Amino acid sequence: MNSIFLMTPESVCVTQADGKDHILRRLGELFAEAYALDGSMVLEHLEERENLGSTGFGRGVAIPHARMPGLKRPVAALLKLERPVDFAAADGLPVDLVFGLLSPANSGATHLHALAAISRLVRDEGVHDALSDATNGEALYSVLTNATDRDAA
């Protein structure tokens, strides 16, 4: 799908959340399910990063991310929220698309490249609209697969 980070159909879902803490917990669970990671360790790393400042990207998107020991390459997950939630984003808008990104502990440039790739994806109007219109995880994954395949071509 994307050579910079791994994303699987199991790492994408539509869910409900009632706040930033709930979103981060749900991301931890999703990473645990999709990549056989320790969900509480994922949550700890995401919260640690979030405490430095909100990863609310703007335009209804948040990109919680962290570096974590034990990973071989960056892995990503996507939550589409049924209702937008305040995430203290820079533009003040609530978020309904949350991309989680975990990278190996020592992956300086690789982590930044993966963040930039996600950022480019969500800045693309067509991709952003298609993700917003998707009604389930399968549709979300299809949008992401088509977008990254198109960019790779």
| Overall helicity | 40-55%
Please indicate the percent range of residues in DSSP E strands (runs of 2 or more): 15-25%
- Report the structural category: alpha/beta
The residue-averaged pLDDT reads 92
Calculate the terminal CA-CA distance, rounded to whole Å.
12 Å
How would a crystallographer describe the biggest sheet? 6 strands, mixed
Shape: globular
Task: State the order of secondary-structure elements, H for helix, E for strand.
Answer: EHHEEEEEHHH
The Rg value, from CA coordinates, equals 14 Å
Strands, count: 6
Total DSSP helices? 5
Low-confidence stretches: none
Describe this structure as you would to a colleague.
Strands 1, 2, 3, 4, 5 and 6 form a 6-stranded mixed beta sheet that branches. Helix content is 45%, strand content 22%. The longest helix is centred in the N-terminal third of the chain and has 16 residues, at 20-35. The termini are close together. With 153 residues, the chain is α/β, with parallel strands linked by helices. It has helices spanning 20-35, 39-50, 108-123, 125-133, 137-152; strands spanning 12-15, 56-58, 61-62, 65-68, 75-85, 95-104. It is globular.
